[in-house]
Amino acid sequence: MLVIPQIRTRRARATTLAVSMAVVAMAGAGLPSPASPSATRVAGHPNSRRLPSPKLGVPKDVKLVRTRSSLLGVHRWYRQVANGHFVVGGWYATHFDKFTKRTTHWDGRKPVGPLRIVAPRISAARAVAAAAALAKTSAANVVTTGLWVLPPSRLRTHARLVYAVTTADGRGARTSYVDAADGRVLQTVQVADKARNTSLRPVTGVGRVFDPNPVVALPNEKLRDHNDAASAVPVRAYTPVKLVGLDHSHTLSGRYARIINAKVAHSATNTYRFNRSDNRFEQTEAYYAATREQTFLQRLGFHDVNASRQRILTDAFSDDNSYFIPQSDQISLGRGGVDDAEDPEVVWHEYGHAIQADQVLDFGTRNQGRAMGEGFGDYMAVTMSQPTQPKGPSVPVTACIADWDATSYTSGPVHCLRRPDTANTYPAGLAPADPHMGGEIWSRALWDMNRSMGRADATRVIME
Questions:
Q1: Is residue 4 part of a domain?
Q2: Within a domain: 70
Q3: DSSP letters along 334-381, please?
Q4: Cα(351)–Cα(373) distance, rounded to whole angstroms?
Q5: Is position 198 within any domain?
Q6: Do 100 and 140 lie in a common domain?
Q7: How far apart are the C-alpha atoms of 48 and 29, rounded to whole Å?
Q8: Are residues 277 and 413 in the same domain?
């Protein structure tokens, strides 16, 4: 049980809430709570602009892979290294508190021991073939491949040099660890149910989108997809918008998002006004949604949370599914039913996963961490839609997520993918086979904060 003392000042209260949320998050994501003996005082730093050296007290068998700044501190994440390769699941982190000038160390390294082989005996192509065969997909769906060290386990007495092969298709994304000695797939992990430098200033384009979606905008729960027909959604459901942060490629590529479709929308005048029967409409919607979410974080004071060019693939596969792939930093949005990119709440949810992956290495590798990831994504979806929800004393605040997308697979009369205001509770509500159900526990906690503290203050505390 975490006991939080009563603190009267607003800043201290926010700080305490942030710390308490972080401790709960560490428990849910499988991270060790920081113990006081591991905290080390940092001397010689009179103000928060002079930061401690990342090498201070850091073990030699790790490599710095990420540095992030938040409102309260600086966070450095390291990968464990053995025989020149990253260790699966091995990490180390330091967190510098700008107010106390103290650094806390988190040690998540794995026991490794000697490797049976130190150089691969099979080719990467053979490893890819083995992983693709096990995943029942093709080698064309491989997104990343690299050599890693898989530590010992109850099933393996020795560490193994492996190829980590990540594949992605309409059924999701997974990483398979293929023994570099004989090509056997030793383990498979389901991983999903930076901008180019330029001296030119970003430009602003124009487009039209659903914001948040036609079911809410009209409002009309009887809308249906009708195979992407333009006539299925009245023109008044569309919203004209500015597309900010575009680069000078005359495509949907900008400071915080990049559409990576093979046939990406192109406009010499940066004008992207399409209807939903045109696949370029989904590209426009996805770019707008991701950029808007990042812009919201920037307004809250977070300038280092996934503040790079997010890769997004729309109409990625025929299945009615979408996911974020941390290994390739990519959001893939399916086209089954209502094309997922047509509903910005789906994009905002997946961008929530990208936020967590940017903040914490390997977030959500355990069941409760995965549930927290789904709940956080749901919270971001519903809070991003708050400004464009219908307003008025007789209009209730909606907590329905992905109303438009859900018309393809729910019976109604109200269509919701999920809600953050259910009565699902811990631990009875956990469902190891479906982290989305357990996610409703976490999204309810975050939504309660939102309703109590207000959208901006609650999200600022949650994000910190």
A1: no
A2: yes
A3: --SSS-GGGSHHHHHHHHHHHHHHHHSTTTT-SHHHHHHHHHHHHHHH
A4: 11
A5: no
A6: no
A7: 28
A8: yes
User: Which pTM was predicted?
Assistant: 0.79
Residue type, 171: R
Who contacts 371 (Cβ-Cβ below 8 Å, separation ≥6)?
A: 28, 430, 435, 436, 437, 438, 439, 441, 442
Both tokens of 456, joined, read 């901006």
Domain that holds residue 186: 124-192
188 and 208, same domain (yes or no): no
Task: Identify whether residues 385 and 237 lie together within a single domain.
Answer: yes
> Do 173 and 264 belong together in one domain?
no
What DSSP string runs through 81-99?
EETTEEEEEEEEEEEEETT
How many independent structural domains does the chain possess? 3
pLDDT values of the chain reduced to their tens digit, one per residue, 464 residues: 333 333 233 333 344 444 444 444 444 444 443 333 333 433 332 223 334 455 568 999 999 999 999 999 999 999 999 999 999 999 999 999 999 999 999 999 999 999 989 999 999 999 999 999 998 888 888 999 999 999 998 888 899 999 999 999 888 899 999 999 999 999 998 888 633 344 468 999 999 999 999 999 999 999 999 999 999 999 999 999 999 999 999 999 999 999 999 999 999 999 999 999 999 999 999 999 999 999 999 999 999 999 999 999 999 999 999 999 999 999 999 999 999 999 999 999 999 999 999 999 989 888 899 999 999 999 999 999 999 887 665 555 578 999 999 999 999 899 999 999 999 999 999 988 889 999 999 999 999 999 999 999 999 999 99
Answer yes or no: do 275 and 351 share one domain: yes
CATH number at residue 316: 3.10.170.10
3-state secondary structure of 21: helix
Q: How many Cβ atoms from other residues are within 10 Å of residue 31's Cβ?
A: 21
Residue 11 has, within 13 A of its CA and on its CB side, a CA count of 3
Same domain, 146 and 78: no
Residues 343 and 456 in one domain: yes
Residue 353 inside a domain? The answer is: yes
Amino acid at 340: D
